Structures are given as C-alpha cells and as structure tokens.
Amino acid sequence: MENDILQLANFLRAQVEVVTSPSFLFYSKIIFIIISVGFVVGIIILLIKNSWIKDTYVEDFVEFSTYRPYGAQKTFKQWGKVIKRLETGKEGEYRMAIIEADSLLEEALRGIEYKGERISDLLNQVDSKVLPSIDRIKSAHEFRNKIVHNPSYELTLNETKKIISVYEQAFRDLQMF
Length: 177
Hints:
Distance between the termini: 89 Å
Order of helices and strands: HHHHHHHH
Number of strands: 0
Structural class: mainly alpha
Radius of gyration: 32 Å
Shape: rod-shaped
C-alpha cells in the first residue's frame, strides 16, 4: 500500500514538472492565443454577415450625419435613371419611368417601415402630415395602374411629366432629396 502511494506521488510529481516546465507553458499560451484569435475572427465575421450592426448603429449614424433617411443616396441615383427615361422620346420609356417611380416610392415607404402587400396598402396607412400630397400620390398610383393594365393607352410626355412631378414631390416630402 505504501509502495502504491509512493508510486502515485512520484507520478504526480513528474506530471507537475511537465506542466510547469517553461516549454509546456509557452506552447500552451500559443495554442490558447490562436484559439482566442479564431474566436474573435469568427465573431467579427458573424457580425458582418448579420445585419444587426447595420440595423442598430450604421443606419442611425448615417441618418444623423446626413440629415436624410437611410437609403436616400440610392434612391436619388435610381431617380436619375427615371428622369433619363423621359429624355428618350419613346412612349415605352415613359411607361417604365412611371412604373419605376412608383416602385421607388414603395421602397421608400417600406424603408420607413410601413407594412402591406401592395403600395396601395402602404399609401392608405400614410398620414397627410407625412405626405401632404397623399391624394395626388394615390391618383398617380391609379394612373400607373391604368397604364400597366391597359397597354393600348396612349401616353404623352406632358402626362408623364405631371405624374413624375407628383412622385418627385413625394420624395421631397419624405426628404429623400
């Protein structure tokens, strides 16, 4: 029995010497540093792929620093494409300009977090304090529906400019540009 205890004590002493040796501690530190760096990189990758940071901090910071809603720059670029369609002189391009302006307004309203399946649902939720020209916007949307569902409808440049000006005023009211 005493012999077994001595053997166990010698074994434990040898293990303590291995664990406390400088080379073992050095390699242990390196391994744990590598594991820690791996975890930090993994967390950073997950935060980048997840939209939590963007939703929580980036959007608010951009809105605060530019005094405009988040996404206004993108909307302004797309609006430029809508305006270029008017310069072509083609009726098909006029139709596309109105359709694109309507879909841009839908995106903007969804960005403000209005809920609904269609833009008409979104427009019914909007108060005249947010969009003072809401009635004109609803009329412009109805006109958009008319030209989409009636392909034989003849569209002129003047009609298109009137409808586009309604959408432009809506974007100005929403402070998109």
